[in-house]
Amino acid sequence: MMIFKNVTATIGVPVRLLVIALGVAASGSATASDFDGSRNLLCAPTDAIQCEGAGECSRKEVELLNMAKFLYVDFKAKTLKGTIEGATSEETSSIQTVQKLDGGTLIQGAESGRGWSLVVDKGTGDMTLAIAGDDIAFVLFGVCQPR
Description:
Blueprint: E1 4-8, E2 14-17, E3 41-52, E4 57-60, E5 71-74, E6 79-82, E7 91-94, E8 97-100, E9 104-111, E10 114-121, E11 126-133, E12 136-146
């Protein structure tokens, strides 16, 4: 089951995607081990860019994308979970790969003909998420908090 069954751009294009994005700054100081895949993460999107097939890109309000406000990355279970506003249940999607990079952690998955990649900075918890497929793509920015 996908977390974001009907992520919708402000122009009204429905998109079935998986989105990982991040939100709340951690209280206290973070360490590199907080964001290396050894601790689960709570994430929330803060900024978004939408691009369409012809390469036309524009900023979008995250609130208008019809996606979960908070996402939970469970590294042990290899799942991404979130609840879309108005939904009656939590949605779950599989994480296919997790790779430690010099500067952070790369988390990837794919569903319904679309792929996504999330990079979390190991020093700050800042994240960048890219989702691509079917002549539309999103890039989301935010910050993660260890859970």
